[in-house]
Fold these 2 entries.
Entry 1:
Amino acid sequence: MTAIDDNGTRVLGLIDKHLDSIRTDLTDEQYQQLLVGLRVLADTPPDDLRAVRRALQGVRHCLVPALEFDHPVRRALDSLRYIGTVPLRPLDPQRVRDLLARLAADPPSPPDTATVIAAAERRLRRAPSLSAAEVRARYGGSAPPAQLIRFADHELGDRYPEFQFRPGGGAPYEAVLEVNRVLLADADPWGAADWWLSGNAWLGGRAPVALLGVRPDHELVDAAVALVEGD
C-alpha cells in the first residue's frame, strides 16, 4: 500500500501553534511574504495535488530562511522536500483560510524585549561572517579597526559580518567604518548590524547594506546620523 503524506496539514497546525515565535523570527517583509504564500495555498484547488505541493513549497521558502534549524515548523517544512514520490493528502481549504484570516487580522501580541533581542541576534548571526584570523589577515596580521562590527561567539570565536568588506578579500568600505563610528558599533554591535540589514525609511525603505558602493557614502552616513539625532 502506498503511504499517504499528511505533512501539509501538520505544517498548518504547527504554524498555528507556534505563531508567536514565528512572528518574532520573521521580519515584517517576510511576514507579508508568508501571507502571500498562504493566500496562494488557499486559492489552490485541493484536488490538484501537484499545485498544492508547489504552494506548500512556496510557504516553505517564506519561512525556512527565518527559522532556526530546530524550530518545529522548520523541521516539518524541511520534510516537504522529500515527499515528491509520496501521494499528498488533500488539504482542507477552509483550514488554510482560517489560518490566513488569523495571521492577517489577529496578529500575535508584541513579544517582550528579551525575546525580540534574542530573535534579532539569531537573524544577524545567520549573515555571512569572517573569523578574527581572516580579518587580521587582511591587515597583515595587525588588529582590525575598532569600528568594525564584531560579534563575540563562545564556540566560534569573534565573528565579523562579511558585508562590511569589499568583495574579493578587500578592505572595509569607508562608509562602513564611518557609519559604525556614528552608531557606536564597538559598544552595540547588534544594533549596528541590525541598522545595516534592515529597511531604512531615509533610504527609500531599502537596507543600507544593499546600497554600499551604489549610493554616495555621505547618504549612508547621513541616514545613520539621522537615527542617532532622532530626526
Entry 2:
Amino acid sequence: MQFVSTRGQSPAVGLSAAIAAGLAPDGGLYVPQVLPAPRELQTGATLADTAADLLAPFFAGDALEAALPSICREAFDFPAPLRPLGGGDHVLELFHGPTAAFKDIGARFLAGTLSRLQAGQDRDLTIVVATSGDTGAAVAAAFHRQPGVRVVVLYPDGRVSPRQAHQLGCFGDNIQALRVAGAFDDCQAMVKQALADRELQAQVPLSSANSISLGRLLPQMSYYAHAALTHHAETRRRLNLVVPTGNLGNAMAAVLARALGVPIGQIVLATNANVVLPAYFSGGDYQPQASVATVANAMDVGAPSNFERLRWLYHGDDAELRAAFRAFAVDDVTIRATIAAAYASSGELFCPHTATAVKVLQDLRARGAKGDWAVVATAHPAKFEAVVEPLIGEPVAVPPALDALLQRPAHAEPLAADYAALREVLAPM
C-alpha cells in the first residue's frame, strides 16, 4: 500500500517510509492513497490478533509485513476491557499499560516498527515529540534504552499534572525531557518545524511519535475494533462511542476503524473548554486558536493536527463532515462535578478527560439517545490526584507500574518556546 500527504504536494511512499518520516515533506500528514476495502474480522480473537488482522492491508507489500504479528504481540500485551456501567452504557478502559494512559498502545506499536526499521542503520534516529500530558511518558517508556534511538520530549511547563511531569522526566538515558515556556500548541509547532527542516534532517535523522505519525494512529484502531466486534457478537448491536479528544488522533482512529467496516455506530467528540471542534461542528469555520489551560490538560489543544486527516477522509466536504459528527465542550466546573457525582453515586472513578465523555453521554441520554454507548477512558485517575482526590475525599490507589515510575528521580530542562532553541538541542555539537 502507498501513502500520500493530506496536502497533496509530496510523492507517494510505502508504509515504512511514512512511519520513519513522521510528517510528509510538504508539512501534511500521511494517509492511505486508497482505504482498504472493509474486511471480515474474526470475533473471539485476542486484541493482538485483531490488531494484526485489521492492520494487514496497510502493511501489505511493505518490509514490515512479516513482522506485523510479532509487533502486535509485543504492543498489545495488556488488556483494554469494555466494562458495563449499566443501562446500555459502558466504559472502554485504555489505561492498563505501563504509564497508565491509552497512549501506551500506539507508542509501543510505533517502537516495535521503528526498532525494526532502525536495525542495521549507522546513524541514531532522534524522535521528537510534543505532549500535552500523556503522550511523552508513553513514548519515553516505549523507547527507553532502545539502541539507536534518542527521544526528545517537549511539554508545556506548568500545564501538565505533577505526576505527568514526573513521568516525563524520570527516564533519563536516551530520553531527554524539555519543559517549554509556552502551551502545547507551541510545542507541537516546534516539532513540526523540526520535522520540516531539511537542513537539520540531513544532519540528524528525525521522526515523530505524536498522533501525526501513522505508526501511532493505525494501531489505535485495534482496541475500537476489538471492543466493537466483541460487543456485536454478544448483542448483535453496534457500539456507539463518546471519545475525549484534544489533538483528534484517538477519535480519528475510531473513525478509520468504522470506515473499514468495524461495527461502530455514532462517534461523538468530547472536549474541554478548548472549543475549536465544537464550534466547527456547530456550523462555524474551522478556526484554530490559542489553547486554554484546563483540568483535563491532555486535551488542551487549540489546533488539532488530525483535523487534516478527518477532512481528507470526507474529501474536504465540510457539510458532509459536519453531518457525520457531533462535538460538545465541558468546562472545568462541570468536569469536577461529574467526577464527584459519579464517585458519590456509584463508586465509579474517572480521570478529568474521561469525565468529559461521561458528561457528554449523560447529556445525550437526557436528550433521548438510544442504543449501546461506551465512553473512552483515556487515563487512570491516579495520574491526576491533585484534581480527583479533593473531589472524592480520599486517596486514589496508584497502579504498580505507575508507582514504580514515580519512585524514580526526575529531571527536565527548561526551553524557550522558540524553534532556534529546540534546534540547538537537536543539532549535533
